[in-house]
Amino acid sequence: MKLYNTLNRKLEVLHPINKDVVKVYSCGPTVYNYAHIGNLRAFIFSDCLRRALEASGHTVKQVMNITDVGHLVSDADDGEDKLETGATREGKTVWEVAEHYTEAFVSDMKQLNILPPNGYKIRPDGYARATDFIDTQIIMIEKLLSGDYAYITEQAIYFDVTKLANYGALSRQKLADKEVASRDEVVSDPDKKHPFDFAVWFFLAGHFQNHSMHWPSPWGEGFPGWHLECSAIIHATLGDPIDIHTGGVDHIGTHHTNEMAQTEAAFGHALSNVWLHNEFILVDSKKMSKSSGNFYVLKDIIERGFSPSSFRLLCLQAHYRSQLNFTWDSLAAASNRLKSLQALADLRYQTTPGYAGETFITLLKDLPSRMLHAAQDDLNIPQALAELSPLDIVLVDGLKEGDRLLFENFLDKCIGDLFGIDLLSSSDITEQQKDSIAKREAARKSKQWQQSDELRDSLLEQGIVLRDTPTGTIWSRE
Ligand code: AMP
Ligand code: ZN
User: Residue 447 burial by CB count (10 A; 0-12/13-18/19+): exposed, middle or buried?
Assistant: First the structure.
């Protein structure tokens, strides 16, 4: 498996630390609102990674967090806590807001056929809440303080970025350059030593004196900074260093840079060997984000008559490192592609004697390794999907009874497991519909055009489209 490691800016062959298990951590959602489809792209991408690793024979241990505390609107140390903003907006407690949007998120994941993380079993849904790991976060702060990587002010405990020699290695932005770029930045805590120092713990003081989520700590009541949760969760669940860490490109400069720094300072080794970042979904060429208001959620997609799988396929058609400009037309095209894949899969119900034959069998034997090869090439899922096109010959020729099992196995492993697109759950048409197809064929053969048309129209009303081929009539779902 070759992956583009943001840390080294190059494609690298994956060498898992422990050859039996690949440890993967994926930054999860902040649950103060519904995840928008840009966020969902990030999770479809990490799911593709998991599936490609598993298809390559690796056992994957994956953890994903749910940020239910500490993520401020600015992504840094200023502004409201996103959860508190959600609570004020909805007249609920922060805990109610977190629970509601966590449930909505888990439901989105199920609808998109995203495998639940398997490395954290305490929560039945598998997602690690930041608030489940306050103890580990406090232990890490103790280590940072005792190693002189952090300092305490009246408002917060900060990580001192000047203390870690390779701070910023991920973004490759030198501290001096960052400083010039942000000279005008408002620093709300006068005791913060350096603008890029980041809070690992906020006290109930100043701006946050009425913050509703807080825990005791050796230094006073408060709540953890956002970046700390991921380092702590990784430490407690997977053990650092891990093999692969994922998230969107917006996390490179601050969130992931700070996650890395905390772990290196607290434990003296790297957080992750490989860092993968997905590009954005854009709308009208701008990043989709909640703050810009230019976002759609999964419900919008469903309300427009599209299935979650169509959106999944749309994401799969673009390489994860390319931006994806979302339009309803592109979603419609993905939906049509899904229908043609479904038509292909439904051929297993309508075998004809003698057709498809050798070309098809050769294809079925050849395709899995070609698809896997593409998936192993920095998750080139668009290429893996493109490998399917020659299969269209069965749409013309029909499928031979003896090839059905091989075909079903292909649909299960290569499309179901690798792409997370389930084509096997569709049922066969009813006996009555089969009967109508046979009657229509008989009518057509005896040139009773009116009866033939009536039967075809009646099937169309039931969502069944007929196509006449040299070997007989093939149906597909509209
Ligand atoms: P958040 O809930 O803001 O922490 O974001 C969850 C995930 O979505 C993170 O990995 C982000 O980097 C990613 N993300 C945010 N906006 C977009 C976007 N427009 N397109 C793709 N990924 C995004
Ligand atoms: Zn994170």
Answer: exposed
Distances (CA, A) of 207 to 189, 191, 210, 261, 348: 10, 14, 8, 26, 63
- Protein residues with CB under 6 Å of any ligand 1 atom: 27, 29-30, 38-39, 41-42, 247-248, 250-251, 278, 280-281, 287-289
Q: Mean pLDDT across the chain, nearest whole number?
A: 92
| Selected residue with higher pLDDT from 185 and 403 | 403
Q: Which atom of ligand 1 is nearest to the CA of 35?
A: 2
Res 372: pLDDT: 98
Q: Would the pTM of this model clear 0.90, i.e. be above it?
A: yes
Residues in the chain: 478
The DSSP code sequence of 12-52 is EE---SBTTEEEEEE---BTTSPPBHHHHHHHHHHHHHHHH
Which of 117, 136, 120, 99 shows the shortest CA–CA distance to 228? 136
> 253: burial class by Cβ within 10 Å (0-12, 13-18, 19+)?
middle
Ligand 1 centroid to Cα of residue 317, in Å, is: 19
Q: Which residues contact 28 (CB under 8 A, 6 or more apart)?
A: 43, 64, 65, 66, 67, 105, 127, 128
Q: Is residue 38's pLDDT more than 50?
A: yes
H/E run at residue 111: helix 94-111
Token pair 């062959």 in the structure block, residue: 13
pLDDT exceeds 90 at position 79: no
* CA quadruple 418, 421, 425, 431: dihedral sign: negative
CA 3, CA 8: separation in Å to the nearest integer?
A: 11
* Segments in 414-476 forming alpha helices (H): 418-419, 431-445, 449-461
Q: How far is the CA of 452 from the centre of ligand 1 (A)?
A: 53
